[in-house]
Design brief:
9-stranded mixed sheet, 9 strands, Bifunctional nuclease domain, alpha+beta, 9 helices
């Protein structure tokens, strides 16, 4: 996995403005680049549960998969977030298990790696339970990563500070109109979405996400 960037979970936050919106914040090892991903309520609860905030009365489908994997000796190797389209992150999980085609092979069990597409939030929920690494590509970081300096987001290409961003057409003011969003490119919308999420401007994030979904 040398060609990928390893990620850690920085946290999960709940919007106090827009009901049902959660943000999963991932970061690379130095903590300087963060990757915010909007996820659904159930997956957010499942990830939080697996991270240690456990409610003994709750269990999730991800826990069932963990139990099945242990019984059948399935090894959960990694999660890879490999693509971003219209604000949606695409992932796959890498599994390793016994591969038997004939009775002769049953005497000498082989291990085979399987790549399975998964919703990113489900993949992360499983990775936490299996204590498996999470990776992404440099291309996704270049497109959607938020760079931080001394705790504040900066423009990764032009080293523009947060204060300078306020004078930019991309700054996430709550006054952004629907017309403003419709006139922006997909690349600019993704950049604006990430800044809105990191700064907990969830109402704007929801509007941007809706505009990106409309363009699919």
């Amino acid at each position: 996995m040398d060609q990928f960037i390893r990620l850690a979970i920085r946290g999960i936050s709940l919007s106090q403005i827009q009901s049902g919106i959660y943000v999963l914040l991932l970061e690379e090892e130095s903590g300087r680049i963060k990757l915010p991903i909007i996820i659904e309520s159930l997956q957010a609860q499942s990830i939080a549960y697996a991270l240690g905030k456990r409610d003994p009365s709750r269990s999730f489908t991800h826990d069932l998969f963990l139990s099945i994997a242990k019984v059948f000796h399935i090894r959960f190797k990694a999660v890879v977030i490999y693509k971003l389209v219209n604000g949606i992150f695409f992932s796959y999980i890498l599994l390793e298990g016994d591969f038997i085609e004939t009775e002769e092979e049953r005497k000498e069990i082989k291990k085979k790696e399987y790549k399975i597409d998964s919703k990113t939030s489900d993949a992360v929920a499983l990775a936490v339970r299996f204590q498996a690494p999470i990776y992404t590509t440099k291309e996704i970081f270049d497109k959607a990563g938020i760079y931080f300096e001394n705790g504040f987001p900066i423009d990764k290409e032009n080293d523009v500070s947060e204060a300078e961003m306020k004078n930019s057409s991309l700054f996430f003011s709550k006054e952004k109109s629907q017309q403003d969003l419709e006139n922006m490119t997909e690349k600019d919308l993704n950049a604006l979405l990430n800044h809105a999420v990191v700064n907990e401007c969830y109402e704007l994030a929801a509007r941007i996400k809706k505009e990106l979904d409309r363009r699919e």
